[in-house]
Every structure is written in structure tokens, then in C-alpha cells.
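Need a sequence for this fold. Nothing fancy.
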């Protein structure tokens, strides 16, 4: 038995991946203690002066905190909330965190609040942004998963826009409101995509310095947005770019002829507006490659459009070299990926980073008492595509990963892409060449930095072994001024880790 264990240990050691220590400087803050037990970080931002603003939730409260450049707490306030008040988005500008919530005092009434956490004044205030009515229990912000895309700040920081649903029983309609960023005064309100049959699902939002708002989303064809695809797998929607101003609305259909667009996001490169995302040849749930559209915002026309298949390296990272040739030859389509980050480097290159997300249900036996259905959330593989400034797909990589909670973060530092995540103590290389990111049942964990060069070469760098140290949550992190800051997982006692 001892010989067998020794043999297994040697095999694992042989498969251990060559790892190095992260090139980032690692430091930790002093520990502090919360008066209330906190749960998730809802919003976190760092200013140009390296001060940090954080909003977290407790059972019946929002916790607002500020920290100085050394991450010493300088301000704290507990604001009572209720189940009827929920977070719907946030913005950060002018040294202030704007934290938006919607309150539903009645089934048909909605009040949108703005909590302002001012880092300069060390203060918190709560104001009413607007009030409106909805039909029955209709949501004001359609998609809970993507509600942050309903808020946008102009590049000059003078205006912000909010996109909301205004759906009734007999009509679909959507509203854009534009506000003065300093006074929060409403500058104009416009209804768009008003139709009795066709439903619009908001995907991304952008506002320029002239108060023109660009709303990107899916316009469904006669099915009220209940399904993404028809019975044959074709898209049941068109991708539409709406240009909304105070006096005029303009609509532009975005298409790739025979291909289906899975998702798109705004990207600004050298003052040119791009729409970048994923497309499929099979159906709207899958991904064959990356696509890029250059938009003339004055004429509301597509200047160029490109669709390029996933590089072979994506398949090698996910399936191993044994099957990568076959997958690449057939251009095997991926599925269930949502865009999390759109990052632009100093040369104008753009990175799309997406995570595979899906939900399953398992039936759990409970002895003689029967059982129950358990919902399982899957946050699995990561897909990385890099586009050149002119929209060419330069390279693609992926991370073979398994997790049940949001588990990673991404940022660019000196034009190097960093993916920060937790995994098993020692990354191992499988016999087919893949590097699997996961933690075994009896295995301790470690915090890693996957560093990608401008050409897509990756190095696996360990930040720390978590055993005996604080466990940090990369997903709840913020990057600014060449520093990435993340919080530990304790419910009362907290520390920060700084990577720079």
C-alpha cells in the first residue's frame, strides 16, 4: 500500500507544471474588523490617488467604506436597506462612487436612488434620480445578470445615461434618460424601440461627449423575446444599434449575412467605435469565432465588418493536442460564453475575455425521506481573444477551468494580460498537454497569476499558497494606477492584497 501511494505521488509530481513566482509585487494591508458581518462586494473602485471605495451588503444593510492609499479605513457608514431595494448599477468618476438602487414600494411603483460615496469629502448621501410606474411587477431593468450595462458615463465625465424597460401588456417600449453627471439633473428623456410585437433586449450602452446615446441589443422577431432561436436553430432576433438623442432616434441593423451573432460589446479604439463579440454558423447559443464591426456614428453605417474563426490554440488549451487538430479542422463551436471584460492596451489592441456559464440541476437523495433538486452554477472555461486596432483577430487562448462561483479577474499592466484566480495547490499538466485549473476534494488551494504576453504566450505564476494565509477573492477586485486590489473572504475580519 505504501509503495502504491509513493508511486501515485511520483506520477503527480511528474505531471506538475513548471511554475514560477509572479512578477508582480505582492503586499497585504493591516487587518481590520467590520461591525457587521458582510457578504458579497457589490462595487469596488480605486481613484487616481489610490483611495478605494467599496460597497458591500449585509442582511438588511448596505455597507459603505473608504480606504486611503495604504488601505487604512477612513470612512464607514451603514445604510439600512430592505428586500424591496436592490442594486442595479454603479459608476465611478470625479472621485465619487455612484451606487444606483431601485426601490419598489408597490407593485407598480419604482424609485431609482443614487448613493454617492465621495472620497474627497469623506461623505455619503442618498438622492432620488427619478420615479416611474411599471405594469404590475414588471422589472425596470430587464436583465439582472447584465444590469450594469444599463449605465454609461461619457468619456469627458460630464454626462451619464440610464437605459430602462417600459414594457406593458400590449406594447414593448424602452427609455433612455441622460443626466448631468455633476448635478444629477435630468437633461432629456427619450423612448425608443416602441413596438406592439417586437421585443428589445439591451446588451450594452455607450454615451458620447455630445449626449448621443448608443444602445446595442437584440430585437426579437414576433416572439416577444422569449427564445433566442427558432426551431431550426436560426436566430430569432436581429442585433440592432440604436442612436438616441434628444430629438431623434436612428436604428442600424448589425449582421454577418449567413452567420449568427452571439453577443457584442462596445470598444473604442483610436476614437473609432467598434462592436466586437462572438458569432456562430450553427445557432445563436454557440461560438465559432470573433467578429468586429467599425461604425460611422455620424452616418450610422457599418464601415467594415470581419468574422474570423477561433485559432487552433483555443482548442489545444481546452481539449489537448490530441484532439485539437480535429476540433480546429471542423471548427468546433463553443457554447455558453458571456463577455466579462473588454480591455484595450496602449497600442490599441483589444482583449475580449469571456467565461463559460451555465446552470444544471441534480437530484440529491435524502435517505428514506426522498430527496430534493439542487441547482448548480457552473463558472468554467475562460476564452481570451485579442483583436488588433483594425479589427483583425491576432490570437486566442483559453483556460481549462472548473468552478461553482465567480472566480477570476483580469487586467492589463504594461501591455501584459493578467488573469488572477484560485486553483489547486499545484497546477498539473494532463497527458494531452492541457493545464487544468481546479481544486481536488482533499487538495489545498493557491492563488495564481496567469500572465499573457502581447503574442499570447502564457506563464503560470503562483502568488501564494492559501493554506495558512488569507484567502483572497479575485472576482471582487479593482485595478487602477497599475495596482490590483482584492479583499479577503472573512465575514468580519478583512485584509487587502495589493498586486503592482
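Here you go.
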Amino acid at each position: 500500500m505504501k509503495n502504491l501511494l509513493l508511486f501515485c505521488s511520483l506520477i503527480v509530481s511528474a505531471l506538475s507544471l513548471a511554475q514560477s513566482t509572479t512578477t508582480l509585487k505582492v503586499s497585504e494591508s493591516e487587518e481590520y474588523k467590520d461591525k457587521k458581518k458582510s457578504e458579497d462586494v457589490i462595487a469596488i473602485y480605486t481613484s487616481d490617488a489610490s483611495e478605494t471605495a467599496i460597497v458591500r451588503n449585509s442582511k438588511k444593510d448596505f455597507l459603505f467604506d473608504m480606504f486611503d492609499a495604504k488601505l487604512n479605513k477612513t470612512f464607514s457608514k451603514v445604510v439600512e436597506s430592505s428586500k424591496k431595494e436592490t442594486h442595479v448599477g454603479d459608476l465611478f468618476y470625479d472621485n465619487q462612487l455612484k451606487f444606483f438602487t431601485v426601490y419598489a414600494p408597490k407593485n407598480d411603483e419604482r424609485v431609482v436612488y443614487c448613493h454617492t460615496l465621495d472620497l474627497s469629502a469623506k461623505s455619503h448621501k442618498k438622492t432620488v434620480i427619478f420615479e416611474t410606474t411599471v405594469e404590475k411587477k414588471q422589472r425596470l431593468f430587464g436583465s439582472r445578470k447584465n444590469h450594469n450595462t444599463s449605465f454609461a458615463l461619457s468619456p469627458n465625465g460630464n454626462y451619464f445615461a440610464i437605459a430602462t424597460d417600459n414594457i406593458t401588456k400590449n406594447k414593448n417600449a424602452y427609455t433612455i434618460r441622460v443626466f448631468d453627471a455633476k448635478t444629477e439633473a435630468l437633461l432629456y428623456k427619450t423612448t425608443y424601440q416602441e413596438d406592439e410585437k417586437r421585443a428589445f433586449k439591451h446588451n450594452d450602452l455607450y454615451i458620447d461627449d455630445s449626449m448621443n446615446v448608443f444602445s446595442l441589443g437584440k430585437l426579437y422577431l414576433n416572439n416577444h423575446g422569449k427564445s433566442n432561436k427558432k426551431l431550426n436553430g436560426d436566430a430569432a432576433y436581429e442585433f440592432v444599434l440604436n442612436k438616441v438623442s434628444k430629438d431623434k432616434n436612428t436604428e442600424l441593423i448589425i449582421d454577418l449575412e449567413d452567420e449568427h451573432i452571439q453577443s457584442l460589446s462596445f470598444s473604442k479604439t483610436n476614437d473609432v467605435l467598434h462592436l466586437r463579440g462572438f458569432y456562430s454558423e450553427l445557432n445563436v447559443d454557440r461560438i465559432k469565432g470573433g467578429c468586429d464591426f467599425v461604425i460611422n456614428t455620424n452616418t450610422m453605417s457599418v464601415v467594415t465588418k470581419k468574422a474570423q474563426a477561433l485559432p487552433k490554440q483555443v482548442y489545444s488549451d481546452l481539449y489537448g493536442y490530441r484532439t485539437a487538430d480535429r476540433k480546429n479542422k471542423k471548427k468546433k463551436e463553443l457554447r455558453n460564453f458571456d463577455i466579462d471584460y473588454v480591455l484595450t492596451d496602449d497600442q490599441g489592441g483589444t482583449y475580449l475575455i469571456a467565461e463559460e456559464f451555465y446552470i444544471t440541476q441534480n437530484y440529491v437523495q435524502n435517505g428514506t425521506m426522498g430527496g430534493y433538486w439542487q441547482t448548480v452554477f457552473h463558472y468554467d472555461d475562460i476564452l481570451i481573444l485579442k483583436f488588433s486596432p483594425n479589427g483583425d483577430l491576432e490570437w486566442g487562448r483559453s483556460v481549462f477551468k472548473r468552478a461553482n462561483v465567480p472566480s477570476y479577474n483580469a487586467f492589463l499592466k504594461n501591455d501584459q494580460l493578467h488573469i488572477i484566480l484560485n486553483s489547486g495547490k499545484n497546477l498539473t499538466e494532463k497527458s494531452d498537454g492541457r493545464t487544468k485549473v481546479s481544486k481536488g476534494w482533499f487538495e489545498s488551494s493557491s492563488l495564481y497569476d496567469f500572465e499573457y504576453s502581447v503574442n499570447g504566450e502564457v506563464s503560470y505564476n503562483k502568488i501564494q499558497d492559501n493554506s495558512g494565509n488569507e484567502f483572497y477573492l479575485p472576482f471582487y477586485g479593482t485595478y487602477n494606477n497599475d495596482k490590483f486590489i482584492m479583499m479577503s473572504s472573512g465575514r468580519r475580519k478583512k485584509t487587502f492584497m495589493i498586486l503592482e
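For context: Helices lie at 2-15, 312-319, 321-330.
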